[in-house]
Amino acid sequence: MNGRFIAQQQEHRMGPKTQDRHIKFNLAILSSGMSLSWPSPVLVKLRNPTETPLPEPITDEEGSWIVSAGFLCCLVSNIFGGMLLDVIGRKYCILLAMLPKLLISFILIFANRVWMFIFCRAVMMMTDSLVYMVVPVYASEIACKDNRGALGTFLQIFSSLGIVVTLGVGPFLSYTIYSVVLTATIAVCTIPLIFLPDTPFHLYAKGRIDDAMKVLSSIRGSEEKAKQEMEEYRSSKNNEEKSAKMALFKNRMFLKSVSLGILVVGGAQLTGFNAVQFYLQTILESTQTSVKPEIASVTIGIIQMLASFFTTPITSRFNRKTILLTSLSGISFGMLGLGAFFKTIETEGYKITGFMNYLPMISLILVIFCYCAGIGSLLWVIVTEIFEGPARALGFSISVNSTSILVFLTTKYLATMISTVGPAATYWFFSCMCVLVGTLIYIFLPETKGKTFGEIQEALGVKKAVVKDKTADGKKEKSNV
To answer: Least C-beta-crowded within 10 Å: which of 121, 315, 427, 474?
Structure first.
């Protein structure tokens, strides 16, 4: 009953058309959640002589390249994606990502060479990166200031749902059958995207004023609210000359926003969450506890999805910074517990019994729950909030590039780091990173909840433009205060 009431309240605040369009657009994220968690069950199959579609099982080095190579290639899609967002729009960017993704997932069904896996995963990760870039921008531009946080959390919910599907069915299906399921899901998720309109901000920026007004009136529920928002678009459009792509790199406020974007998005990767998620089943097998890795991974996937549903009421009640800091604290404790487990079992002759059987799973649940209910959901919201309209696409693509680099490093060299310094030191390193990132967020990131994009820019230090009295020639003058 309470969940139904919350859903009704959310729909009332957002407007049914806003919510419906956002859900359809986030179907792309569901398919990306499935493909992002693909390595967890599939790497285990590729290492198994009886399950692998390859002539022989993969090595650890080959596995690390299958997982990580795509994130290095994402640098290309992030750069061009930032440009395409403004050139062809949000809708056609997402379609541009989904169609190649569908083709590659079909090829993966028949892949039987390591290079094919590396190539297909690289292309798929490039398309997923574009999806994760476009959806938050789309969400922020169709949402009003009071529900940007709630709409933004849908991304994590749909991503977690895709991850649950992979972790729930992947370990129990053959490689080929799971690949067919992935391809079919991508196809189903692509169809509704064809019929969605672009965002009113992009339509306005392209001079399609009437179309922008029509879409905005539809999602806001009244022409009066739409006209008020159109005034903000005009103000943003007036600043567009100042926001020319090259000129932005000389703009101190833009560079400050980029730094904060890298702090939030890049910092989220330094927590080690993605390294844990992509190697989840492998990590669970390495603990050698009595808990079956397949069952544990499914349980953790369900916990992840439930955590994502917590984000909507949490973001409605608490400030962004409070959620981020609490989330990072929980992840830090989870990594601390995981490190403590591996340090304890290093003792020669130590037998895992009692509570120690469950410590790795409890620690992983804490890491994943705190990430998904906190920084994992909010990072996309915050990064789109801290950039002004004309600079949003470029700023977001730069911030996401930091993610690609750090995810590549953490996934490519996780196994190397574990073999060099040991699993305990590795997970304690991630725990320390959580503390460092949390400290920097506390000091430098302004609160963005409940503020318009203009108010957020003021909080970052942008001077507010005001209209002075008319001059002798009857024209209004503007000045900064």
So the answer is: 474
